[in-house]
Design goal:
The protein is α/β, with parallel strands linked by helices. The chain has two domains: 230 residues, TIM Barrel; 42 residues, no CATH class. Helices cover 46% and strands 14% of the residues. It has 13 helices and eight strands. Strand 3, helix 5 and strand 4 form a beta-alpha-beta unit. Helix 5 runs parallel beside helix 6. 40% of the residues are buried.
Length: 279
């Protein structure tokens, strides 16, 4: 079970950035767990698509995420940072969500300042709550955790409608409120990433790399040089899987079952049959 939160928190102090790929279900998490990452990232986008068959548009609930987090953390060794959208409500709901995620085994929680219902951070039209309300929510989340090593990732979506300066100021105030990691969603140029790093020097910054999203894809070394020490790829594997699924289903529909794939024995190993035999 994912328990080594202290190690991950100490890892944030190192210069080498943490790379956290997105996982979204049991199979993706099991495979990622063997790949020697410092952390994994459970995105609301991925869970909404894989669990609910719906887009990342406010359909997820805290119960949905609790189920997925606890299921994954029962088998994972790698620390899991889990998306919590808006905290699924106001301050009372956010406090409850922090408690739920911590008890479920996550190593950290991500909370954003969008209005409800939220939408994916790389889809236009996002609206945010007031700066004061957002800071109050992050302060409440920090105070609610029982384990000081449980990470609070504070995200702002203010860039789109209120500009970069407002997003940076929110990040600064989230950090002052006790957030461990600051996530300014979807900067729209390399220069904006650089401006964030310069303005928030000394703060642990998260960069979200989404191919085809609103932000440019930047090299890890470049992001690290700018000051970003936590880099996530929330949908990269899911997008690759979707391409493979489209191809495989089309081939099966055409009567072709010869496409390259893992063997049944390998697949059974990946889903955990070998470990289950030991119990």
């Amino acid at each position: 079970m994912t328990r080594d939160r202290a190690h991950l928190k100490q890892r944030l102090l190192q210069a080498e950035p943490i790379i956290a790929p997105g996982v979204y279900d049991g199979l993706s998490a099991r495979i990622a767990d063997k790949a020697n990452f410092d952390a994994l990232y459970l995105s609301g986008y991925g869970v909404s698509a894989s669990l609910l068959a719906r887009p990342d548009n406010g359909y997820l609930s805290a119960d949905d995420m609790q189920f997925r987090i606890s299921t994954l953390c029962d088998v994972l060794q790698t620390p899991l940072i889990a998306d919590a959208d808006t905290g699924f409500g106001d301050i009372a709901e956010t406090i409850s969500t922090v408690n739920i995620y911590e008890k479920a085994g996550a190593a950290g929680i991500q909370i954003e300042d969008q209005k409800i219902p939220k939408i994916c951070g790389h889809i236009p039209g996002r609206e945010v709550i007031s700066r004061e309300a957002a800071v109050d929510k992050i302060s409440a989340a920090v105070a609610a955790r029982e384990d000081s090593d449980f990470l609070i990732v504070a995200r702002t979506d203010a860039r789109e409608q209120h500009g970069l300066d407002e997003a940076i100021e929110r990040g600064r105030q989230f950090h002052a409120a006790g957030a461990d990691i600051i996530f300014i969603e979807s900067p729209e140029s390399e220069a904006e990433f650089a401006a964030i790093g310069a303005a928030l020097s000394g703060v642990t910054l998260l960069a979200n790399m989404v191919e085809g999203g609103r932000s440019p894809l930047l090299a890890r070394a470049q992001l690290a040089e700018m000051g970003f020490r936590f880099i996530i790829y929330p949908v990269a594997v899911m997008a690759t899987t979707a391409a493979s699924l489209q191809k495989a289903y089309a081939q099966l529909a055409a009567g072709d079952v010869q496409e390259e794939r893992v063997s049944f024995d390998k697949l059974s190993q990946l889903v955990g049959f070998e470990a289950a035999k030991k119990h």
